[in-house]
């Protein structure tokens, strides 16, 4: 079982900790919306997977950035109907191996698996 803790410090911030090494992430309620935090979680999950896969494939990269945008339904049950993630990878990686790594990263992202079939998730990339 995975466990996290989110503590609200009234008027200030959320302090988020995981069960791993006790690191704390501090987020101000005025700096981020709930919908943004969802996309950030998706990007973080996918990026952690991608980094692990690239390292296992022994593919060198210098830096990595991901941007996401999503469209939320206007009527009825509110959910993201489309999400697009754009990865910028700085390094000398063969495109076929990068495409495979991105597919695996998305496929193995627990958040992607949890979202469900009503949401279309796509990705693109740039090698720099």
- Low-pLDDT residue spans: none
Largest sheet: 3 strands, antiparallel
Total of DSSP H or I helical runs spanning 4+ residues: 3
Q: What's the rounded overall pLDDT mean?
A: 90
Order of strands, widest sheet: 1-2-3
Labels describing this entry:
alpha+beta, 3 helices, GMP Synthetase, Chain A, domain 3, 6 strands, single chain, 128 residues
Describe this structure in words.
- This protein is 33% helix and 36% strand.
- The chain is α+β, with helices and mostly antiparallel strands and 128 residues long.
- It has two domains: 1-31; 33-127, GMP Synthetase, Chain A, domain 3 (2-Layer Sandwich).
- It has a three-stranded antiparallel beta sheet with strand order 1-2-3, with no helix packed on it.
- It is globular.
Sequence-ordered SSE layout with sheet pairings:
Layout: E1 4-9, E2 13-18, E3 24-28, H1 34-56, E4 63-72, E5 80-90, H2 95-107, H3 110-115, E6 120-127
Parallel strand pairs: 5-6
Antiparallel strand pairs: 1-2, 2-3, 4-5
Protein name: Putative redox protein
InterPro entries: KH_dom-like_a/b, OsmC/Ohr_fam, OsmC/Ohrsf
Organism: Selenihalanaerobacter shriftii
Concise structural overview:
The protein has helices at 34-56, 95-107, 110-115; strands spanning 4-9, 13-18, 24-28, 63-72, 80-90, 120-127. The chain has 128 residues and is an alpha+beta fold.
